[in-house]
């Protein structure tokens, strides 16, 4: 069995400011995670010469992958964070002020940000990524974003659709998934 390693990007400057979306670079803490992740991956995937690193097209994932050497890197638009549309770049506080209706709370799975996406939209656009992940024989490290990783994790861990928007995917933690005959096994490595 070959592992799939899922991780969010290291903490970004927008994470520190509490802003969603955007395309900011890493904070100093995020940079430290990128180095720790590189160390981990180089040890964990030593001798796995066909392994690859998949990121989104956003700076914070590309910069998180940066210190990892020795493996090919592939950027997928489908791994970009949920598009928050008119709320892109806002804090949750600002969103509350500007969009006082509670429809996202009521149905987070189906709520589509104006001019943006819903979780269901994200799940749908991930299909080609999942097909490609299933096809891989070598390990893959997926460096992406919270909403996207909720959906990917739910697929592999066989969690129901309605749970997806609420699954915890903490920063600076690697979720390792192994698919074997007896089902899916999961390990978590909290690097900081
Ligand atoms: O930028 C969005 C977050 O990563 C997803 O968080 O869907 O829980 O608001 P949320």
TrEMBL record:
Source domain of life is: Eukaryota
UniProt: substrate binding residues = 8-15, 60
The name of this protein is: 6-phosphofructo-2-kinase/fructose-2, 6-bisphosphatase isoform X2
Q: Which residues of the full protein are shown?
A: 560 to 751 of 751
